[in-house]
Amino acid sequence: MTSTLTAGLGLKPQHFAQARECPAAGLWFEVHPENYLVEGGPRLRWLEAVRERHPVSLHGVALSLAADAPPDAVHLGRLRRLAERIEPALVSEHLAWSTWRGSYHPDLLPFPRTGEALARVCANIQAAQDALGRPIAVENPSHYLSIEGHDWSEIAFLSEVARRTGCGLLLDVNNVFVSAANLGFGAEEYIDAFPGDRVREIHLAGHSRDPLLGEALLVDSHDAPVAGPVWALYERLVGRIGPRPTLVERDGNLPAFGELLAERDRAHAVLAAPIARAA
Amino acid sequence: MGASLSRFQESFSQAMISGHEPEDPSVANLVAQPAFAVYRNTVMKGCVDALQANFPAVARLVGDEWFRAAAAEFAAGELPREPSLLAYGDAFPAFLAGFPPASELPYLADVARLDRLWTEAHAAADAPAIGREAFSCRDPGELETAVLQPHPAARWAWFGQAPIFSIWRRNREEGADEGELAWQGEGALLTRPGDAVQWTAIDGPACRFLDACSRSLALDDALAAALEADPEANVVRLVNALLDAGAFCRLGHPRPDSRRTSP
């Protein structure tokens, strides 16, 4: 099924009707499942109506895979029921934590990549995959802080997690750009070193400058079009590893559906290019 | 499991929410970086945005700035307990009731309760509603002991002191009536007959009737509860109006395993 996905869009409630009717080839949509963990009602009906026409991916933000605790069983059960209902093309999560001792912090929080963390993250991914009955893909988050005590680079950590659990990886190119700028590493080197055979999905999004710190701190704000240098990194990645399902994310300053679709079409064209070259 | 990841997360979480000096030295180093504010701000904005989405009538009544300040204070004391942010703010009405800056708006907490009921109705389980026809072809003797089961999406409340429902609807509806409010008690019923939540005013006897039905009392006892609230109540009209609004999903005798014990 994933072989038919080209470029997709984050699904926003404001665009449900246009999203459902849009005939673009290879188009798919992604949602945060946390917004659909309801017993019934219109939200599920809207999502199912879109799903009737297009593949849908569930991109979780709250499994808290890197918390030093197993994933919440109730949450995992709800996620499983939603997945049974929607039959998503892909399920993904983040290399981050958000829930700690019963409190949910609505963000993707960092941690030192130690051997202890590696064992915990692998156990949590395994628990999620067992509950869902399918592999998930795990995304590189955006970084803002220089954390001491990393024993693993992010790429080595993600590669080892994928090797041990069989999970896929989701490479967010904008997160690489933002993290590289904030932590001072080379975005191209990161993109070139990422294990391409594990990549199940690619994310693109816009970022912004911190209102106080400006260029010194980029924020993964999802409130602007995808930036030029991020497109360049994306083309470099696809040129190396070949086409993968690619999602354009947008959460803030939401433009008209047509404007988002134009960005999505640009990614679609990048994905089609290597095939054209090969043909 | 080793304790250092736990210690890091405990310390990080506390530093973000309470601003306490972190116990973990590696976290103290992070808090000192200007970028730590990105996490603190994102978490707080996520909570406040969720509350603003979940309590739109309150937000419209008090304005953005007041609302967001109150929501931030609530969030600092209580983060979401689950990742579905639609569920966040259970305790927000009670918080407003005891929030000193809200003391001049004594109706605010009850308006928040209605916002909360709207969210519950919006997200509740699906079920077909029954109409008046459910009562036809029933033997009157059988009806006395039958139970009307409220629809999973039906929510109701009686506010004896103030026209809470009128205040709430004026802040949920476009172009709502702006005439003078009659300062009297009101009840509200929220149902989801199609896919959208709808609301209607109901009186005290109707609320008492619904309360009794939700405790699985037999129809006869539920009607007695309504009449206790107002001996003059027209119970046929009352039940028909509730049925028309989609407040019930079943009329029948409780199955032995599903019968709830009443308090």
Architecture overview:
The complex is a heterodimer of chains A (279) and B (263). In chain A, α7 (187-193) packs parallel to α8 and α8 runs parallel beside α9. Chain A is globular and about 50 Å long. In chain A, a hairpin with a 3-residue loop joins β10 (208-210) and β11. Chain A has a single domain, classed as Divalent-metal-dependent TIM barrel enzymes (TIM Barrel), CATH 3.20.20. The model of chain A has no long low-confidence stretch (mean pLDDT 95). Helix content of chain A is 41%, strand content 20%. In chain A, the strands form three sheets. Chain A has an eight-stranded parallel beta barrel, surrounded by four helices. A two-stranded antiparallel sheet of chain A has the order 5-6. Chain A has a two-stranded antiparallel ribbon with strand order 10-11. Chain A has 279 residues and is an alpha/beta fold. Chain A has helices at 16-21, 42-51, 73-86, 115-132, 154-165, 173-183, 187-193, 228-241, 257-278; strands spanning 7-10, 28-31, 56-59, 90-94, 97-100, 103-109, 137-139, 168-172, 199-205, 208-210, 214-219, 246-249. By secondary structure, chain B is mainly α. Chain B folds into two domains: 34-123; 127-263, no CATH class. In chain B, the strands form two sheets. In chain B, strands 2-3-4 form a three-stranded antiparallel sheet. A two-stranded antiparallel ribbon of chain B has the order 1-5. Chain B is elongated and about 75 Å long. Chain B starts with a helix and ends in an 11-residue tail after the last strand. The model of chain B has no long low-confidence stretch (mean pLDDT 92). At the A-B interface, α2, α3, β5, β6 and α4 of A face α1, α2 and α3 of B.
